[in-house]
Specification:
Structural class: alpha/beta
Number of domains: 2
Number of strands: 7
Radius of gyration: 21 Å
Strand content: 15-25%
Helix content: 40-55%
């Protein structure tokens, strides 16, 4: 039986066609291309509610993204068991796509997400993803910094990686034929080897969830100040760790702790 829908607008017709494509993609390439477009759109909409996400845990953000993809017709799930817990798994008929999510607190922290994805979860996959959630200002600048971090292989100077000689050598081999392509302000493609030796494309998405309004009501929103102070403290620690525990900004630490202590001691309203 053929379904007939009268007075269907071109826009609505396109949406219905996409629903069918999501459920019955003609190829893995079509599945991945459409899914990447949908993830981009979902993250863009979620950015418009940054006040809900600016201090959220990465698992909570990924859970909302997963729910949005389910509403679009995908079989999406979070924390799927696969040599660990895969942050996001999306299926459509016989095709599957997985992704690791990381808060963008430091370049090394994000890079650890790549290592999780490529050495723990990926097997025969030809495509996968990384989701970066920036909760500090300068998301575009931060993403460019991470691309430079990858391109220059700055991870190779990390004490945390160098202290394990075998792991360091294997990581170097893993990224020996790395290529970064299709760079935008919010995404890029990384082509590199998987552990099997086959090439894989990792689509990297970034979302800007930074929220610190400077209008009067924003300046007076002490809960926002408190949560942003916690986020900056976390980022400071990761950067300190990445810089081999050198040159820590004690003055900045003192300012952040003052905000936290004022809130906890009830020196201003919650």
């Amino acid at each position: 039986m053929t379904l007939q829908i009268p007075n269907l607008s071109p826009k609505d017709h396109k949406r219905l066609v996409k629903c069918h494509q999501r459920k019955y993609p003609q190829s893995n390439d079509e599945f991945v291309l459409l899914l990447e477009e949908d993830i981009f759109d979902c993250l863009l909409r979620m950015e418009k509610s940054s006040e809900k996400h600016y201090s959220a845990r990465e698992d909570d953000i990924t859970s909302e993204l997963s729910g949005n993809l389910i509403c679009l017709g995908y079989d999406a799930s979070e924390q799927t068991k696969k040599n660990g817990a895969v942050d996001l798994t999306v299926k459509s008929e016989e095709y599957e796509w997985i992704a690791e999510a990381k808060r963008g607190t430091s370049n090394l922290h994000i890079f650890e997400g790549f290592l999780q994805l490529l050495t723990r979860y990926v097997k025969q996959d030809k495509n996968a993803g990384i989701l970066i959630y920036y909760q500090k200002k300068g998301a575009i600048t931060q993403l460019r910094s991470f691309i430079e971090y990858l391109s220059q292989k700055e991870w190779a100077t990390s004490t945390n990686i160098l202290k394990n000689t075998i792991a360091s050598e294997e990581i170097e081999q893993l990224f020996s034929e790395m290529k970064v392509d299709n760079i935008t302000d919010v995404s890029f493609d990384l082509y590199t080897q998987s552990i099997s030796g086959a090439m894989i494309k990792v689509k990297v998405f970034s979302a800007n969830f930074y929220f610190n309004p400077l209008d009067k009501s924003g300046r007076d929103a002490q809960r926002v100040q408190y949560n942003n102070a916690k986020l900056r403290l976390m980022a400071s620690h990761h950067n300190w760790q990445e810089n081999e525990y050198k040159n820590f900004d004690v003055k900045a630490l003192d300012e952040l702790l003052n905000v936290l202590f004022q809130f906890e001691n009830g020196d201003f309203e919650k």
